[in-house]
Write a structure and sequence with these properties.
By secondary structure, this protein is of the alpha/beta class. It is built from 5 helices and 10 strands. It has a 10-stranded mixed β-sheet, with helices on both faces. Helix 1 (28-37) packs parallel to helix 2 (74-81). The relative contact order is 0.20.
Length: 253
Amino acid sequence: MADATAAGLRLAGTWGLDFPARPGGRSFVEMGGELLAGPPGQDGRPAPGAPPPRPLDYLVVAHEAYDATPAGLVAGYLADACPGDPRAFSLADQGIGAPFSGLRILDRIHRGGGLDDAALFVLDPAAGAVLTVGGTGDWALRTVAEERAGAAADCLPPLTGAPAPPSAPALDRAPGPRTAYLLGEGLRDLAGALEATGATVRHAAPGHGCAGVWRALPAALRGAAEEGAERLVVADRDGGLGRLHLAGFVPLR
């Protein structure tokens, strides 16, 4: 059984959308509005019930690319459109790591007793994703970490059985088949080594930028639960800076 005592934010729900390319692109405000509307139903209209169902305390917008049409402040727009009166801010200039940083900030606020429900909007010109956190859910965040080491294999459990150095992520290093992985586009080369340990590995769809792993998270969580995994590690690597970003989730059983 997973150790849920160290768990932080609960993951209440996730969803995402593709944003087909068009001349001029979409503004972040347009992307945010489409995400709130939810995926289209069978009749082509937005499916009901996609927006966060509970009042939010915080709302974070994370993005890697620049706004194609910066005609409005997306954090303010979403704060007005979401239930409650959430404090809202944006994270940028962190590449692939922006959503991970947003999740880390929300988790620290939650652990300090200042947050019940929040939402993380991940925006990319090709795709976007929404994570609602802090409410009810079957999975909880255990840790978020960043490694600047060049060798990602030295930082991802269970590729190494050596004791973790003080600066390494607070993720268990013990090998075993009970760990599931969701890898971003920058870590596809590690799949074989992880699978050789007995772990289940899933991949984010290519071309979705910083939204890739978060778009793929719902299916990865379902699969990990069906397999009886004791944790799910979401990881991606920034191709330019070489930084490895990790988020570990554990099931609440």
